[in-house]
């Protein structure tokens, strides 16, 4: 959602948003040695608001600790050869360090906001050209699910809108620095790379056919494969929940702390299964977190 507030024919406020993603449906490395992921966009947002100040030539970012946004804005000004000033305010619902694309959403929302103010039509490649200089990113500049080369910050393929999903999740605690994680990633074997290629082919078809059970199946296999890279202590619990009607699979933040169950909200047993999951969480003193793409 974008908004422009005008007074006396002058723009005084511009806002833009970006959504997060619940980890990834699939993440790994292909036989071509290219790292990739498949996104799971969720309705968890960052909003950026830009208040221009024509007497300034510097954009002040609030909160001031959003260092990656500050860097991105400096790259944008250099990229466009412009010198503008004002106040950029970032408000985010997305927790940091959890694998939900918080920093990517901050950057995308902020760049969108400045481009909107400058009346420059947003193009994904502009965002990608800037973001590739900062960190691996999650492909969240695309609203649908995408196959994305996150280390290269390049689109593989737009896969389309996902079917409606609810995700009941647990946070395993701590914070993960995505940049450090990707720099220290354990090498994949040739067999694993072939397996990821097969999974990518399967999920590409499943998303285009809006087959939530097959999407969940691939996501579950990816969660299992990722255990040796970023261990999830509650994986076996979530795998056991896949027996429930309407629970389509397990999904993880492959470089984050979140793990969850994908639930088909159109299933007649969805509400009963959700209650069963909540009861299991209560027994183990896990705090449930609810996300969706609807």
Protein architecture, described:
With 294 residues, the protein is an alpha+beta fold. 33% of the residues lie in helices and 30% in strands. The chain has eight helices and eleven strands. The chain has helices at residues 67-80, 102-117, 124-131, 178-183, 190-208, 212-225, 235-241, 270-283, and strands at residues 3-7, 10-29, 35-52, 59-62, 86-92, 145-149, 154-160, 166-171, 247-252, 258-263, 289-292. The strands form two sheets. Strands 1, 2, 3, 4, 5, 6 and 7 form a seven-stranded mixed beta sheet that branches. The protein has a four-stranded antiparallel beta sheet with strand order 9-10-8-11. Strand 4, helix 1 (67-80) and strand 5 (86-92) form a beta-alpha-beta unit. Helix 1 packs parallel to helix 2.
């Amino acid at each position: 959602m974008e908004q422009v507030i005008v007074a006396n024919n002058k723009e005084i406020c511009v806002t833009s948003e970006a959504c997060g993603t619940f980890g990834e449906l699939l993440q790994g490395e292909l036989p071509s040695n290219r790292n990739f992921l498949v996104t799971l966009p969720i309705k968890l947002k960052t909003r950026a608001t830009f208040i221009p100040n024509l007497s300034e030539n510097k954009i002040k970012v609030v909160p001031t600790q959003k260092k990656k946004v500050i860097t991105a804005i400096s790259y944008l000004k250099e990229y466009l050869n412009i010198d503008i000033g004002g106040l950029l305010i970032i408000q985010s619902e997305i927790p940091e360090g959890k694998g939900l694309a918080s920093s990517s959403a901050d950057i995308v929302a902020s760049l969108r906001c400045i481009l909107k103010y400058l009346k420059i039509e947003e193009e994904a490649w502009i965002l990608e050209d800037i973001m590739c200089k900062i960190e691996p990113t999650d492909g969240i500049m695309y609203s649908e699910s995408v196959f994305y080369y996150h280390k290269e910050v390049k689109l593989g393929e737009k896969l389309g809108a996902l079917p409606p999903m609810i995700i009941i999740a647990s946070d395993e605690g701590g914070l993960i620095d995505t940049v450090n994680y990707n720099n220290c990633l354990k090498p994949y074997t040739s067999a694993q790379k072939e397996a990821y290629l097969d999974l990518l082919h399967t999920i590409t078809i499943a998303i285009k056919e809006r087959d939530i059970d097959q999407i969940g199946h691939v996501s579950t296999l990816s969660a299992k494969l990722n255990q040796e890279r970023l261990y999830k202590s509650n994986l076996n619990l979530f795998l056991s929940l896949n027996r429930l009607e309407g629970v389509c699979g397990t999904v993880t933040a492959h470089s984050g702390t979140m793990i969850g169950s994908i639930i088909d909200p159109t299933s007649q047993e969805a509400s009963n299964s959700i209650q069963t999951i909540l009861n299991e969480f209560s027994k183990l003193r896990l705090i449930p977190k609810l996300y969706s793409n609807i």
